[in-house]
Amino acid sequence: xxxxxxxxxxxxxxxxxxxxxxxxxxxxxxxxxxxxxxxxxxxxxxxxxxxxxxxxxxxxxxxxxxxxxxxxxxxxxxxxxxxxxxxxxxxxxxxxxxxxxxxxxxxxxxxxxxxxxxxxxx
Length: 122
Hints:
about 120 residues
């Protein structure tokens, strides 16, 4: 079989398929939200989701664009983002340099998971 096919990885990405044009944005929102949370290893802010949905819409509405082209462009955007490439632990506001502070539960889970299993926390 050549070209795009039904593979396990495509099935994991495309957790929904829009039945009509009006179903595309809700389906894209679901896919993008789930993928972003996994890729960035943190909860997704509404502003992040809206930015990625605009990436989807531009690719979807572009020349030779379709639903899958929009999702593909979002995936390319996600994996080239520093949030995917690096693990960030942000210093809380108001903490003096060199001062100890508590990290969040999510950051602690991430540290432990990467130390023990070299993978994201589940």
